[in-house]
């Protein structure tokens, strides 16, 4: 686009070598070439050409630029084009100038002001072999190492059988892009400031409405905090409600990948067994009656898929009321129910408000959004808002606003309805393929809810070994024992199906059968 920009030694500018040194050099425009065929606006092309020449030092620091009128004539463009190109480079700091005394190449270029000495950046960081961590830091680091994902990456054709990932192939990307664009056009200015730590008000209202109707959650919008996913909800609860040394009931098997938040709070996990009715409340009371918190997944226990019975729900709430303890209900994938009416949330049953309720958009939309919600009793709203504000202020405002539009324009319920049909079909494909190909190797029974199933191995077969064999065949199939703390029981593989297109599911089941045989 641009050729050379040489210093002009015309009569009016310089007449002798001595004067060249005293007066600033003046640019020549003779070889500035603007190419109309690229489609880029001329003023942008000109600004780019000048910037390139400045960076390559063809226009040295201090060089005086031609006046806008003269350059416009020489390039045969409008004077506005040149004015705008100069204005842009002035704003970016490549040029300096004052009205009446001309425009010059800046002596300090922005690149220099915005970067450190390159050599310093390339020096390797000094290694300290064993950095001294806080007890909390060490506990978190150690806990995280235990829940590392299988070594291979995530990509197309490599989704089977990741649990908890929705159908990314059905993400409403065009619609999302449109909502994002509209929001930006309409109100970008309003979205550039802080919002309250508890979240963007229209989204809190939309979530409160949705939860009342779909999940029987009793709340007003002021009780809803928008958080960066369930992980942050758990972390906030641990920080606000637990002191170091306090005990917390966790389901065993359970959502172990989140447990680092309890280590970070210095709390002690008490693994409580799960049976066909969900968390065994009596066992919890025997093991640790004075726990401060119980974390449960009553709608669809993770990972077993068990629905907590009404009897157990009542027992859990009664224990919490008696012991002045809290219950944290993780309702992570309850949108996806394929038959019958859903059991309402535990939170809706708790008249004395000892339940905190959390849900996530990771399963309905994408885990990459990092958006979810936490509903807290009114008495805890201030403490949780203060904690959220202290840790990281609030979730990104633009994303919250787009999600609010997604709700208020009816897209959320439409999307959930579509995904229910899709996931029911995917589950059926998995179950049928398993009946054909995994007979005697893995017992995969259908469930009315959720995004994954557990395939049960024959008694005595080690699920870690089975999971490793699956991994060597290019499949993610977590062993059930990856989610166990102290419980023992029949081995199984956790099979996520929601993110796997049907053709891929059938092929993955064949591969799993070969791996297990
Ligand atoms: C039991 C359970 N809770 C919550 C989540 C979602 O976590 P987040 O909202 O932090 O993505 C998952 C995801 O796999 C899960 O399995």
Give a structural overview.
The chain is an alpha/beta fold. The protein has three domains: 23-114, Arc Repressor Mutant, subunit A, CATH 1.10.10.10; 148-165 and 415-516, Alpha-Beta Complex (Aspartate Aminotransferase, domain 1); 173-410, Aspartate Aminotransferase, domain 2. It contains 18 helices and 16 strands. The chain has helices at residues 17-22, 42-55, 68-75, 79-92, 110-114, 118-122, 135-146, 173-187, 201-215, 229-241, 260-264, 281-287, 310-323, 381-392, 397-408, 411-437, 463-472, 502-516, and strands spanning 7-8, 26-27, 95-98, 102-105, 224-227, 247-252, 268-275, 278-279, 293-296, 326-330, 355-360, 372-375, 443-444, 452-456, 478-479, 492-496. It has an eight-stranded mixed sheet with strand order 5-12-11-10-9-6-7-8, sandwiched between helices. α2 (42-55) packs across α4 (79-92) and α8 (173-187) packs across α15. Pyridoxal-5'-phosphate binds at residues 164, 229-231, 255, 297, 302, 330, 332, 360, 362, 367, 372.
